[in-house]
């Protein structure tokens, strides 16, 4: 039996990277024969140690780095959101979102996109009067108004405070559900990757060293046992030792490496993650 047309369309590869190599100056290869396929509608998160080349890969897919060797196939309809919103300060919020749209209904499309991210009341505002979360939502609207087949997110939540980050993650989850672009999300946050993505990749020594299929129902919660199992696997891949809550207190105090957050900060982390699950469930 043939797959449903919508499903078949989603399975079609939109990103195909083969033998990608990139170095800077006379330095070592940061990307070193990297292969990657991302299918239509797939949400992929990319983890890796600092300096492993995550942003270099994202910039290559965005077409911002034209120097690498190898084969890169990406759709023309793609958009990027960075850690900082990069809005043009002398254009109103709606005009930032409409920027580059060539159709007569550009303003209407910008307004619709801003409404989707909850910014209908800030259409005429100047970017510098927006809060950090609002500015990042405007950046998301600017990306989505182009109806990209590929959405590239370079640590888009990293500069936001904890609660705004949770809300914005929930917003990205619901925008993705509504529009279904393929997404590549660069992040340092294992839990964020597992909350949002279908696949989590780990970049290591210039290649995709680990490719984890996240077979958890949505919305996800970090307290689910299966979530914790995947989290442990990813942390191991990243070379991070996990805290064992059953460990005796003396061992936690051992002056080796900082391994466990204090009990109170752990409780705070749990509370924040409960809020996260709620935010994602509501989104
Ligand atoms: N334009 C550049 N010129 C020289 N070196 C560069 C340039 N861009 C990146 N690099 C180097 O390439 C390596 C990979 O950088 P990249 O920003 O891709 O890593 P990353 O995994 O995104 O790091 P982080 O997680 O810290 O953001 C780093 O050693 C960086 O210094």
TrEMBL record:
GO molecular function, one term: ATP binding
Domain ABC transporter residue range list: 15-230
Keywords: ATP-binding, Cell membrane, Membrane, Nucleotide-binding, Translocase, Transport
UniProt family annotation: Belongs to the ABC transporter superfamily.
Protein's recorded name: ABC transporter ATP-binding protein
InterPro entries: AAA+_ATPase (IPR003593), ABC_transporter-like_ATP-bd (IPR003439), ABC_transporter-like_CS (IPR017871), ABC_transporter_ATP-bind (IPR050166), P-loop_NTPase (IPR027417)
Acidic residues composition-biased segments: 240-249
Superkingdom per UniProt: Bacteria
Matching PANTHER family: ALIPHATIC SULFONATES IMPORT ATP-BINDING PROTEIN SSUB, TAURINE IMPORT ATP-BINDING PROTEIN-RELATED
Extent of Low complexity compositional bias: 255-265
Record region (Disordered): 240-283
